DNA sequence: GCAGGTAGCTCACTTTTGGGAAGTAGCTGC
DNA sequence: GCAGCTACTTCCCAAAAGTGAGCTACCTGC
């Protein structure tokens, strides 16, 4: 096996998130993750940041989750991790050029949820009301 | 009903997804959900669809997950569910006007993942390689 | 009177996820 | 020579999510 004779990577192979097992679906799932979106958002807004700063900014995230999320984003080439071997070690995270291309979509999603939270909350109340009175 | 005396919905209260327990964070999480994004995408592309059509289109989704996702989206006012009490009952789902406003953000995210899957896959390989050779 | 077709719901079970606490490493200042 | 700092990593356990099969309801056609 292996013997990949003619590799042509100029055009992306046709991925389809609606197909099971498609890597684009995995990717979509990964970046749609709760903490990933917030990390991406925070790094998009504030630029390079240290671990503890991110931790403070994403109120409620556990160390474990933050590390895990950052690792995954680094592995996916979206976040660059730089270690400064100083006295107490310093680590900084920032978006890679690829990560920067995600800023737009993530911002759009975040802003949408900000703008429409009220409406959604109202819709939920109405739905629950209707359910309760047996509508 | 409900005697809503002075409702002023012009300005949204200040929500912040970076705060724990903020409804906008919940909402972000909800719409960032794997199946939610795909359902929203499918309904955005094809318009009103029946349950079984959606099931076929979202390859690999289980009935339970699809029902659950559709219910959540309906509750949030993003999807409209219409039941036609015909011979074998027919149910159709479509985006509400609020759901339509989400089309843009969801499309942006989906297209981003389509366009950048190759790069991310490459980044992953590189990362894993480096890890394996103890980089 | 029973299979067939739609759109679910329910239940038992497995897998995954996430929290919290404790441990690690390397140097520093007292 | 030991606490203290940062940035993790590891472990255990509880909770949540997801799977698959079987059940419901209603009418139809044979």
| Multimeric organization | homodimer
How many β strands of chain A by DSSP?
A: 3
Separation of the first and last Cα atoms of chain A: 61 Å
Strand order of the largest sheet of chain A: 1-3-2
Shape of chain A: globular
What percent of residues of chain A are in strands? 5-15%
Mean pLDDT over the residues of chain A: 89
Structural class of chain A comes to mainly alpha
Number of helical regions of chain A: 6
User: What can be said about the biggest beta sheet of chain A?
Assistant: 3 strands, antiparallel
What is the topological layout?
The structure is a homodimer of 135-residue chains.
Chain A: H1 23-31, H2 34-46, E1 49-50, H3 51-57, H4 63-75, E2 79-84, E3 90-95, H5 97-100, H6 103-132
Antiparallel strand pairs in A: 1-3, 2-3
Helix pairs in contact in A: 2-6
Chain A binds a DNA duplex (30 and 30 nucleotides) through α4.
Verbal overview:
Two copies of one chain form a homodimer. Chain A is mainly α and 135 residues long. Chain A has six helices and three strands, in the order ααβααββαα. The first copy, chain A, has helices spanning 23-31, 34-46, 51-57, 63-75, 97-100, 103-132, and strands at 49-50, 79-84, 90-95. In chain A, strand 2 (79-84) and strand 3 form a beta hairpin. Chain A is globular, with a radius of gyration of 20 Å. The termini of chain A are far apart. Chains A and B meet through helix 1, helix 2 and helix 6 of A and helix 1, helix 2 and helix 6 of B. Chain A binds a DNA duplex (30 and 30 nucleotides) through residues 50-52, 62-65, 67-68, 83, 85-91.
């Amino acid at each position: 096996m292996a013997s990949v004779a003619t590799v042509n990577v100029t055009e992306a192979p046709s991925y389809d998130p609606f197909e099971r097992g498609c890597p684009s679906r995995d990717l979509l799932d990964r970046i749609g993750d709760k903490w990933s979106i917030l990390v991406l958002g925070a790094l998009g807004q504030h630029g390079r940041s240290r671990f503890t700063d991110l931790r403070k900014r994403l109120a409620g995230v556990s160390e474990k989750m933050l590390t895990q999320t950052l690792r995954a984003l680094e592995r996916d080439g979206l976040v660059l991790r730089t270690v400064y071997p100083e006295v107490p070690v310093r680590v900084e995270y920032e978006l890679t050029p690829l990560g920067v291309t995600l800023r737009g979509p993530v911002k759009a999603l975040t802003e949408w949820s900000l703008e429409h939270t009220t409406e959604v909350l109202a819709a939920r109340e109405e739905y629950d009301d209707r359910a309760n009175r047996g509508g």
